[in-house]
Amino acid sequence: MKQYVVDAFTEKVFSGNPAAICVLDSWLDEKTMMSITIENNLSETAFTVKDGDKYKLRWFTPGGEIDLCGHATLACAYVIMNKIEPDLKTVTFSTMSGDLIVNRKGDLYEMDFPAYDLKPVEITDAIVDAIGAKPVEAYMGRDLLCVFDDEKIVRELNPNLDKVKTIDGLLLHVTAPGKDEDSVSRSFAPKLNVPEDPVCGSGHCHIAPYWINKLNKDSIVSYQASPRGGTLYCTKDGDRIRLSGKAALYSEADINIE
Question: Which NCBIfam families match (predicted)?
Fold first, then answer.
């Protein structure tokens, strides 16, 4: 079985967000896919099977299967368009979140994702205690989005991950206006056994709609200020978000399992 590791939302290896992509002829059982994911010890391992003109796609974290993952979708599109079907310019993935379309535009891979509906929530003492700083606003979609007014706070935060597990939301995203980009963000996912997600595509289905509305722009450039770092180009289209980024191939291997 072929496996590729691709760094997404970057043009060079050792930055962006790494995802392992397993290209299958048919589905493995879920226990085996989880074992591969845990063995890889990356934030996400994706598994894909061709189905007619589409590819079925599933995403796993070390904590279990999830319903949406941007960087692993971009990484999978990179693999299919460069290694499997190099003449392909568009690929459609069938997923738990519906059909996701990725278009290749030069060295960018543009993904069409659903935007999360953000509802304002109270900034509780538990949220402040978990993050270690008080946001100026907080919203809930699938994840908790906390907004600060200074990117320095976001870059220097050291949240208590055990306490983050106790607050609502699957992931925690912290964000602020950027000096060089429209927004600066970080994403934490201890509930999925991922302390900090290097670059979170699904997180920007929360982050991008907020800033596009706040800044009254059609599109924004967002920087994920994790230690690895990564850049996302985000455009809102109705209730959808188009996320674009680059990718770099780190490794190509054969997995040997019984």
Answer: PhzF_family
* 151 is known as an active-site residue: no
Classified as helix, coil or strand, 61 is strand
Residue 257 reports pLDDT greater than 90: no
Ordered by start, the domain boundaries in the chain are: 2-110+244-254, 119-237
Residue 53 has pLDDT above 80, yes or no: yes
Average pLDDT over residues 97-109: 94
Residue 258 pLDDT > 80? no
Q: How far is CA 77 from each of CA 4, 92, 114, rounded to the nearest angstrom?
A: 12, 9, 18
CA within 13 Å, CB half, 96: 11
Beta bridge partner(s), residue 243: 111, 234
Among candidate residues 11, 39, 44, 85, the one labeled active-site is 44
Q: Which whole-number Å values give the CA distances from 145 to 87, 205, 247, in the listed order? A: 39, 11, 26
Q: Which CATH architecture has domain 119-237?
A: Roll (3.10)
